[in-house]
Amino acid sequence: MSRRKLLVPESRKAMDDLKAKVSGVQQPDEAKYEAAREQGIPLQKGYNGKLTSEQAGKVGGRIGGNMVKELVRMAQENMNKK
């Protein structure tokens, strides 16, 4: 689970649901492991101190980037309805 605090804590479930949706997994906590597997990065539960910063960034960047793309798509769709 992320140590970062959301500005609106009540949004945690919605953010987790979005993460699962863009990652194609059922459990949001599994999203980072799925993204790592797809890129051949040996991310495991627990200690991952042997990963390089580049490897860790690829995992987080892929998830975050896909979440932003989906949020933009949703906003555009919402604007088109008005």
Q: What does this molecule look like?
A:
- This protein is an all-alpha fold.
- It has one domain.
- 60% of the residues lie in helices and 0% in strands.
- The protein has helices at 12-23, 31-38, 53-81.
- Helix 1 packs across helix 3 (53-81).
- The radius of gyration is 14 Å and the shape is elongated.
- The chain starts with 11 loop residues before the first helix and ends with a helix.
What structural class do helix, strand and pairing data support?
mainly alpha
Order of helices and strands: HHH
Estimate the global geometry from the Cα principal axes. Answer: elongated
Uncertain regions: pLDDT < 50 for 5+ in a row?
Answer: none
Helix content: 55-70%
Mean pLDDT: 87
Q: How many separate structural domains?
A: 1
Number of strands: 0
For the sheet with most strands, the description reads:
none
Secondary structure tally, helices: 3
Please state the CA-atom Rg, rounded to the nearest Å.
14 Å
Span between termini: 36 Å
Beta-strand content bin: under 5%
